[in-house]
Structure formats: C-alpha cells, structure tokens
Amino acid sequence: MPLTRRAALIGAPLFLAGCATQGRLPAPTAATPSIDPRWAAMYGPVEGEPFPVPAVDISEIDPQFLRQEVAYRGAEPAGTLVVDPNRRFLYLVREGNRAIRYGVGVGKQEGFNFQGEATIARKAQWPRWTPTPAMIAREPERYGPYRDGLAGGPTNPLGPRALYLYKDGRDTLYRLHGTTEPWSIGTMVSSGCIRLLNQDIIDLYRRVPTGSRVIVLPAGAAGVA
C-alpha cells in the first residue's frame, strides 16, 4: 500500500528500546478556568496503577494535540494505526469513516524516525527502558549509566505503557509509549520513538491488540492532510 496516499481528516472535540528524555522546561503555570471540563477529566490522575500517573496540565498543550474523535476518509481498515510525523498525530482508524486522533511527539531528527509498516508484536505495562548502543555511543555520560536498563516506574521515559513495533518478525527498536515530558507532545524531541501523553497511551493500549498494523508515514511526505 503506498504510504503517500492522501487522506482527509477533520477534527472534532470529543524510545526504540532507547527513547529518551531531553531535559525539563520550567514548571508549567496552573491550568486556567477556560479549559474544557471534558478534557480536564480525560487527563486527570489515573487510579489503580502501581505507580502514580498524575494529571496533565493541559494548559501547556495545544488543544489540537488532545485526544479527540475525527472524521477519517482514508482506505485503511478499522484497527489500523496511522502515524503522521509531519503533523504530530496518531490515528486509530475506526468503523464508519471515523478515527481517534492522539497528539504525539516524534524524533528530533529525520534520521531517527522509523517509517513504513510494522506490527505491534508486544505490549507492556510499566516497561523496562534500555538505551540502545547507538545512544550510549552518542552520549556516553548521559546514557552509559543505564546500559543495563531502568525498571518501570514514574521516572522511566517510556511511561506507563509501551507498544513494540516489529517488522518482518524482527524488533525495530521503535515504540509507541508514554512520556515524563507532557510538554513535548506536538514537538520533535525524542530519539525516534512515538511518544504520547500517559493518559493517551493507556487509552490506546486498551484499544489495540497485539498483531495490530501500524503505518508510519515518511517525514516530509504529504501522506495525511
């Protein structure tokens, strides 16, 4: 299937094994009263987890990157995940020409980004994170101390869930995962993985089974409009 097929989408309210953080910005300001209460509830604290999943301060995030159902007229069947790195969106295609759209953060350099088709071959809750050899070689002082991995938890850069992308039966080392940096959604900051808000990756994790097809459009291509 050509990855540059044009699809029309209209919005409506409703790390590789080594994905990494990029440092923190100053503490966000308090949420303003104008925030839609539906989104405030959607991104509130998540109960019943082994580690805290705090509320997201959505005042620091462009509303277009918050989870919402949209019209979708592409040809992909229901259950397909389509990632548009250019617009920083991930679409979970549904029946009836609809999709759930999530805001994402993508690789900070084009060469760091996976593109093409893959399959979700594994799912993990509170996954372990291990930087890749390339990451350690690139920034040994930063990533070297974690060469043996970091257990799942509130400081783990993969967040509370991870979906592992495989191609032709082999691990691509790219993931769909949560983040410790909610302000980064809608930006190019990761080491190549597709990061979502923690509440969004928990929602997506519940909706997609292993074996689900993922299409990551090429950076710079007009595959999704």
Automatic annotation (TrEMBL):
One of its GO terms (molecular function) is glycosyltransferase activity. GO terms for biological process: cell wall organization; peptidoglycan-protein cross-linking; regulation of cell shape. Pfam families: YkuD (PF03734). Keywords: Cell shape, Cell wall biogenesis/degradation, Glycosyltransferase, Hydrolase, Peptidoglycan synthesis, Transferase. The active site is at H177, C193. InterPro entries: LD-transpeptidase, LD_TPept_cat_dom, Transpep_catalytic_dom. Residues 79-217 form the L,D-TPase catalytic domain. GO terms for cellular component: extracellular region. CDD domains: YkuD_like. The keyword Membrane does not apply. Pathway: Cell wall biogenesis; peptidoglycan biosynthesis. The keyword Manganese does not apply. Belongs to the YkuD family. This is L,D-TPase catalytic domain-containing protein. It comes from Ancylobacter defluvii.
